[in-house]
Amino acid sequence: MKIGFEAKRAFTNGTGLGHYSRTLISSLAKYFVEDNYYLFTPKQTNLFKIDSIENIKTIIPTHFPASIFRSAWRSSWVKKDLVKLGIDIYHGLSHEIPFGIQNTSVKSVVTMHDLIFERNPEQYNPIDVKIYRKKFKHACVNANHIIAISHQTKNDLIDFYKVSSEKISVCYQSCNPAFGVEVSEQEKKRVQQLYQLPDNFFLYVGSIIERKNLLTICKAIHAIKSNINQSFSNVTIPLVVIGDGGTYKQLVKDYVKENDLLNDIIFLSDHVAAKEFAYTSAADFPAIYQQAIAMIYPSTFEGFGIPVLEALWSNIPVIISNVSCMPETGGNAACYVSPFDVHAMANAMHEIANNENLRNEMIAKGKIHAQQFTQQKCAEAVMNVYQKLLI
Predict the structure, then answer these.
(1) In a shared domain, residues 249 and 310
(2) What percent of the chain has pLDDT over 90?
(3) Do 120 and 182 lie in a common domain?
(4) What is the extent of the structural domain holding 292?
(5) 135 with 237, same domain?
């Protein structure tokens, strides 16, 4: 079978959509070696290193006008290349497929990660909302099959776009296998010194935007530090933040400054080492995860929440919100809190930091729950979608 992928984000995106693309493609190539995989991308970068994988080939527009108008090639003209190469299935890895692909012999699959812009349009530029809606609806209508990365996303596709349930398969995602490999103490020490990490810290991973709700963690740390209800110890454990943002990040930093938390909230994106490839490619992240007391992810809405899975594979406890798809991702291994309940968050942080038995219990449950999201299982689920389309 010849399988093509819309692979722009695999080579250019350092966050969730890029991680999903790279992990899925690598997993399929590893567990289904008899098939050939073609990555269609406007440009190739070293963010996704595939040179050593024999059954993967990269396709870049080289002839005029596609070599100049690469966006048009990606969104429509790529169809000619798909047909020429005899591609059996083309998989749009992030919400879109080429316009007109339904009129070719190529079967198409699209992965829908979330419809957050439909739920919270006020958090997006109105023009972007219109563009996303057009692309997403086109993909849902014209793709031969849809992959949703969670039951939450599947339900949203049914509710917002009236997509038939039979057209959607839920295929969970995996994460970079590096998170499941124990990092040596020497490597942990190197990373700790490079990023000037404290000996003990909580970890937040994700874009610093309103929906991700970093401010609630900062408020919880302030509650612990000020010991408002007289139930906390006088030791404040800092929070290390992996991620970046704009307006909302500034709002968080203003709160941090106003409440004397400058030594308690550490933004790695502001560190000089964040400019290095080991940070931008997430290569150093497993060593950071594995030194954390727990990972905290109080998002108000997600399609899946890949940092939660990365934390489970890293053998650290997770504190997450009790809404959206988070119970799917965290299972029985997580500590759940209402996303804006500051004192519940503070209590959870304090309890996990001071109760070794609880941490060990959560880690043990996390190891078991994470087995639902192995690379092989996730690749098999997607391959099953492909194979059914060609019957």
Answers:
(1) yes
(2) 88
(3) no
(4) 177-372
(5) no
Indicate whether 21 and 110 sit together in one domain.
yes
Tens-digit pLDDT profile for residues 153-194: 999 999 999 999 999 999 999 999 999 999 999 999 999 999
How do residues 195-222 score in pLDDT, each as one tens digit?
999 999 999 999 999 999 999 999 999 9
Share the mean pLDDT of the chain: 94
Say if residue 87 is in the same domain as residue 233. no
- The length of the chain is 391
User: Which residues, listed in sequence order, are joined to residue 296 by a DSSP beta bridge?
Assistant: 319
CATH code (residue 181)? 3.40.50.2000
- Please tell me the total count of domains within the chain: 2
Closest CA to 292 of 186, 204, 182, 189: 204
Residue 233 pLDDT grade (very low, low, confident, very high; cuts 50, 70, 90): low
Q: What are the phi and psi torsion angles at 57 (to 5°)?
A: -130, 140
Q: For residue 231, what pLDDT is reported?
A: 62
Residue reference for tokens 């509650």: 223
Amino acid present at 359: R
CA distance 344 to 167: 40
